[in-house]
Design a protein that fits this description.
The structure is a single chain. By secondary structure, the chain is mainly β. It has one domain. Helices cover about 10% and strands about 30% of the residues. The chain is built from 2 helices and 5 strands.
């Protein structure tokens, strides 16, 4: 289980149990351990669809005890696209690129 926290420690108390708006910077914290979800930018893993970064549960802090960029996340919301287009493209059908940008 994870919980979303505001990235600014001064605003975390007033944003507890509120909804998270799309494209907002947040910190994702593991409830049991209190550690933050972090991306490991130096641990790159080659995958079939491209290179991915390793994700761990580790709180990175600077000298002022503030979380660093490895712990910041943004929940992105976009309209649900037509998944049939992706299936057709994966099967090798020639799909116009403009159809994906709805």
């Amino acid at each position: 289980m994870f919980k979303f926290l505001h990235w600014d420690p001064k605003k975390r108390h007033e944003t507890i149990d509120t909804t998270v708006k799309p494209d907002t910077t947040v910190i994702i914290q593991h409830v049991a351990s209190g550690q933050n979800l972090a991306v490991e930018p130096h641990s790159l893993i080659p995958k079939f669809f491209g290179t991915e970064c390793l994700v761990t549960c580790c709180t990175y802090r600077d000298s002022h005890k503030m979380e660093t960029a490895e712990n910041f996340w943004s929940v992105v919301s976009r309209p649900i696209s037509d998944t049939a287009l992706y299936v057709r493209a994966a099967k090798g059908e020639d799909i116009n690129v403009e159809q994906f940008d709805d």
